Amino acid sequence: LSLHPKILYEQAELECSNCGDCVVACKKMGNALSFTPPQINWLAKYWQKIHLPGPRKIVTAVLALAVLSGLGVLAFHVTTSWKSPAGSYKETNALLDNKRLSWDDGRAEYYEFLPDGTLICVGGDWPVNGFKGGRWQSVDTNGSFKMIFNSTQPDSYVIAGMNGRVGKKAQFTLVYYENNTRIKADDKQHVMVTYEPLQQSHAETAVTLDATVVLNRYAEDIYVLDLRVQDPRGEIKKIFTEGDAITNEVMLTNVKYWLNTPQIIVSEGTAPKLPIRSTMRILFHDGHEESASFITDRVFDRSSEVFDDPWF
Asked: Which of 111, 127, 264, 305 could be disulfide-bonded to 225 (CB atoms 3.0-4.6 Å)?
């Protein structure tokens, strides 16, 4: 099937049904594939080469296990005692720690900067009950910062470069990077609208996956609501949606993300009344559930494109 078993859990492949036939077939080719990690296979083969009487082998195994357990406990103690929770990924910056920020033309109503490096986006394209947008990182002593919206892709990020000290009405630029390569920069100077201490965080209620609701305007004034939830590891079982423009619909998946299919045409020829309220109820395979509530109050202009959907 031209599959890549080594990366199945990093990049889902629909054709794989975990039948195990590949493992059976590879037994004749030196056990190239197996259901156990290669380290365990190596240890088993190494153990078979040790020629000791049965009882001595058992005693040796117990002693080896005790030594390894001790080293593991010591390593854990050193790690938890001396390493910060976010490791080297996060540098402390009093200008940004535990702050609530917003700026003109921001995709979120505001952003929460938590001391452990967590970035939470609230409102705008994201749920009003918060989305853990990824990570933030201090860039300089003026308060410039990096925002990584997908923790699995740390090489793609946005840098906000302050022209002076960070604060309300401060001006800054936004520069976008992919694979650590600069791809574009905003022409305009952005202005900080909110810069204040964070009184109450959405850390306990924030939706853990990137859930967005975006209203697009296409050619001939066709307004389409696009609901999308990223699901790179296939953790979601089902998503129910409802709201001003939706009536109890179930989203569908293409493995890596969920979306409303067909897309929701809100209006044709005239602009819809804003804001549009919508909710998602996200059910996970592990049994837990999350909810996301949206208030969509702006339109993305895609009028240069024709809305081309087979259902439409």
From this structure: 264
